[in-house]
Design a protein that fits this description.
heterodimer, A: about 120 residues, mainly beta, 7-stranded mixed beta sheet, 4-stranded antiparallel beta sheet, about 0% helix, B: about 110 residues, 5-stranded antiparallel beta sheet, globular
Chain lengths: ~120, ~110
């Protein structure tokens, strides 16, 4: 049973370009979460999506960032016109449907974005 | 502002020693989770605690959730070099019908020397 798959693992973009990060959740998982980890900081929540719906985007910057989780295919985190401050590790997590307290989120290996 | 404060930030000990990592907040959490993260990898869940005062053991690791559900601790007995890693606590403040956003602490970087 494959885990959460993120690609690419490493992404280098020049300032002003677009970055597209992909996340395929674990089989059977319908909930996806994106987190960002800056050097020496903890993970910061960005957005929570279910298939075709954004549930909570309270952690997303208002501009340049968007996320989707289409009916078919992976979840995409898109960063337009990247700046150096966007350099970070971006992690995706997925969880199955259900709200019991033993529901857990499984994290992918992350995409390390470097803006040059 | 960090909702969860972890201490210490760095911990360097010899094999065989015991250690405790703390995770504190002024907020109440519906559940609290501990993760371990290796360099270049994503966090891996160690345990979830949901009841105030709850204690969970995982081999040499003991996790405790405070009575008021505002703090937690991780205690490792007889640490081994394989325990080296970044330990993260994360809390959920409002459990709705599904698992929601997690608030993470900055982490404790543990190094165990042979």
């Amino acid at each position: 049973n494959a885990g959460v798959m993120q690609n690419p693992r490493h992404l280098v973009r020049r300032r002003g370009q677009e970055a597209r990060l992909r996340c395929s959740p674990m089989k059977g998982h319908s909930h996806v979460y994106w987190y960002r980890q800056l050097p020496e900081e903890g993970l910061k929540f960005m957005v929570y999506l279910q298939k075709e719906n954004i549930i909570d985007e309270s952690g997303m910057p208002k501009e340049r960032f968007s996320a989707e989780f289409p009916k078919e295919g992976p979840s995409i985190l898109r960063i337009q016109q990247v700046v150096r401050g966007d350099s970070a590790a971006y992690f995706c997590a997925s969880s199955p449907q259900g709200g019991s307290y033993d529901t857990e989120a499984f994290f992918g290996q992350g995409t390390r974005l470097t803006v040059v | 502002t960090q909702l969860l404060e972890q201490s210490p930030q760095f911990l360097s000990i010899q094999e065989g020693e015991n250690l405790t990592v703390y995770c504190n907040s002024s907020s109440v959490f519906s559940s609290l989770q501990w993760y371990r993260q290796e360099p270049g990898e994503g966090p891996v869940l160690l345990v979830t605690v949901v009841t105030g005062g709850e204690v969970k053991k995982l081999k040499r690791l003991t996790f405790q959730f405070g009575d008021a559900r505002k703090d937690s601790s991780l205690h490792i007995t007889a640490a081994q070099p394989g325990d080296t890693g970044l330990y993260l606590c994360a809390g959920e403040t409002d459990r709705g019908s599904t698992l929601g956003r997690l608030y993470f602490g900055r982490g404790t970087q543990l190094t165990v020397w042979p």
